[in-house]
Each structure stands twice: as C-alpha cells, then as structure tokens.
Amino acid sequence: MEHPCAWSEYTEEQTAELEAFCTKYRAFISENKTERECAAAAIELAEKEGYISLESAIASGAALKPGDKIYASNRGKTLMLIQLGTEPLEKGLNILGAHIDCPRLDIKQNPLEEKNGLAYMDTHYYGGIKKYQWVTMPLAIHGVIALKDGSVITVKMGEAEDDPVFYITDLLPHLGGEQMAKKASEVIEGEMLDILVGSRPLTIKDGDECKDPVKTNVISHLKEDLGIEEEDLLSAELEVVPAGKAREVGFDRSMILGYGQDDRSCAYTSLTAQLDTEMPKRAAVCLLVDKEEIGSVGATGMHSRWFEDAMAEILELAGEGGSLPLRRCLERSCVLSNDVSVGYDPAFPSVYDPKNAAYLGHGVSFIKFTGARGKGGSNDADAEYVAALRRVMDEAGVHWQTSELGKVDAGGGGTIAYMLANYGMSVIDCGIPVLSMHAPWEVTSKADVFEAYRAYKAFLNQR
Fold it and tell me: Is residue 300 very low, low, confident or very high in pLDDT (cuts 50, 70, 90)?
C-alpha cells in the first residue's frame, strides 16, 4: 500500500498556506532552543488566544464552563493547555502530547578549567547523540543562572551576529591516524566534549601573580556580561546547542534544516493546532513535556504525577471533582503521542523495511507500536483506535502514512505513549518523518510539518 506524495496534490492556495505556516515554524525553532524557551513562548502565544493560568483560575474561584481556556506550567519546563468542550470532562479528553527537550550538551556545575593557556567549560551530554557530530561547529549557550537572592538570569549567547560562539576542537587528519582507526562511538569520548571559551590571559600588574590567567579573565567577562561570580554556575542550567537559525533545504526549498526538530516539529504543530481549535466537543488538551530524551523521569517528566494532579484541579473547578470522575476522565481519553518518525534515507537502505517506512513529503506518520526487540517497552495501539483515526484523517483530507522505527532487530525507540496508556487511554504515536534524527541539525519536509498540523487539528475537532 502506497500513500501519495502530498506535494503533488496541493492547490496553489494550500501551498501558500503551507509556506506561511513553515515560515512561522522555522522562526519558532530558531528562537526557542531549550525546553524553558519553548514553554515560555508557548505561554505567550496561548495568552494572546485567551488562555489563563491554572493558578489564576484557582485564585478567582470561578467555575469553569465550556470554551474556557486554561494553561498549567510545571517549573517552566512542562506545559499543559486545555480548552473545555461541550461534553463533561468525565467523558474524556482529546490529548496531543509532545516533548520539548532535545539532545544537547549540558554545562557541568563546576565547569571552568584552564589547560595550557586555553579555557574550557566541561559538559555532560543529554540524550542519545553521536558524540563525534558535535565537534568543529559553532555552538551557542542558552539557559538560566539562579542566584542566591532568588533572582534568575536568562542566558542566550551565540545567536546574534555580534555574539561570540563556542567550539569543540578535533584532531587534524595529519595526526589522526590512530583516532580514525577507532569505532565511531569511541572517536570522541564524553569527557572530550569540552567547549572552548577563552584564550586571552588577564592583564596583571608587574609583580602580581595569577595561577590561571585565562580562566580568571573568562570569570571577569562572566561578571561583566552577566553579573555573576564563578560559584553562581553551581545553580545554573546552561545548555550548549548549535548556533544559528533553521534554514530551507534544496533548490526547491522543500525541506527544513534545524536543531531540535525531534521533537519540536511535533510540539509546534500540536501547539498551533490547540490554539486554532474553536469550541471542541471533548475537551482539547496540548501537553508539552520535558525529559523524554532521558526516559521521561524527574518532576518535569511524563513519569511524574503532575499532569494527573493538574487535571484533578481542573475537574474540581469545573464542578466534576473527585477521584472517580478523574479516573473516568483519564481512562476515556484519546491521545496522539506526537513524536517524530524515522524518515527513509536512501543513503542507508539496509536498516529500513521499505514497506513500513515513513517517506519525506508523504504526510504525517502513524506508528502503531514502538519499543525494541520484540516490541519491548512498547505502547501498541489497538486496531479499533487505528480504524477510528483512519476515518478522522480521511474525512479531513489529511495526507498520512504508517511506519515503524527501522527493521526488526535493527533498532527501535520509545516515546511518552506508554505512560499515558497506563491510565487506560487509547494512544498511538503520530509524528513527522525526520532525516538525521538526533544530529545537531535535522531535516524535515515542509509538507509533513504542514500535514501534522492539519492532522492534529482534525483530531482535536473530531465529532
């Protein structure tokens, strides 16, 4: 069974709509390269559409009614938006779930070091990466530094034209014979991913001594530029990401090159579908979560009970409070776990099953099961739910396809799907095909990004 290429069926009007949508998408992923930045930008967009915070709703004490729009933020890293529908919440929700954390390098708590006249910051990589891909490219630092007085300094350095960038060195080919004989996983080791941050020594007066003049000079710049001392790095969350904006790819400009498209391509399309939804029948929910790339653990990951607790608060405000209505609400919900799919890459055909692969430009991809080695750790959607979604997508004229994560025994992976399925929800993975997934720069098709938005909007508005 083959699904047609979406490009071949677009009208001029649809193509113009696609281009306008993807221009906004490129801007979003260019400006927002951390989970904090994505959540803050999403809240700003939501408030413009009439969403109010859960804290404000609780403080006002006003009863929620159909059409009301609420958002809840968890430590500024995980976000839920809900628009109440005409049906009671107890009848269930239509949920779009995506993650906004991405593979990266995190600066360690005690990072600064001077070695032979060069200053470095140590990092610890986050998520599944090929470490050798992160060397010899311009890097930026995004994040926050929390001070003891309770204030928080926002950092974004390396993105503006006049900003400095940061860099990880590699060995020249002339001296790299031994290095290149190693396995790819060993060519660059984790402790070698130190970013170069300075080489100029502090100017000192005659007679004075300075043990690490280059490191000391870097500290002076931190104080001058950010107003911090070295010890303030102990309470910082600083992420090292590729510097630069997302770009169009190809003579035909049909694709997008950008950092963090796993999974911000699905997060942005989920968010915009939520914001563009009018009065739904069942309450519409967009859930943007943190920590998926490291197992969804921690207070801001999907394994936490934050989502459940936030829904308990909302049911209470809607006059449907209580343990049993909450359980019924969650168990009767339907979910699209919106995480990217592996796009078929003709350069590496041996790891794909061509009949069950996702192809760029053929639309959003449904993945019935994930997991690895005999579907281990998988959510496996039931046939009835898949059939119902086929109807919704076909009635909305959405271009869609199905896929799995490579050949059997070739790989696999996981998403937040099985955690939501633990409540008894109907869940399936649904995402955008990506080339070079988890690389610093990933590629998607504009058509697939646009079709994901259309699919997610159709899902929220189903009757």
Answer: very high
Four-way CATH pick for 104-242: 1.25.40.390, 2.30.250.10, 3.40.920.10, 2.40.260.10: 2.30.250.10
Query: Which candidate, 270, 259, 304, places its Cα nearest to that of 102?
Result: 259
What CATH fold (topology level) applies to the domain 6-102+259-460?
A: Aminopeptidase (3.40.630)
Q: Model pTM?
A: 0.96
Residues 61, 307, 241, 253, Cα dihedral to 10°: -90
pLDDT > 70? residue 102: yes
Is 365 within 8 Å of 358 (Cβ atoms)? yes
Ranges of each domain in the chain: 6-102+259-460, 104-242
The amino acid occupying position 368 is K
Token look-up 């006049």 returns 162
Q: Average the pLDDT over 135-159 and give the result.
A: 97
Residue whose C-alpha is closest to residue 96's, from 113, 112, 109, 79: 79
CB 362 within 8 A of CB 448: yes
Assess contact for 415 and 337: CB atoms under 8 A.
yes
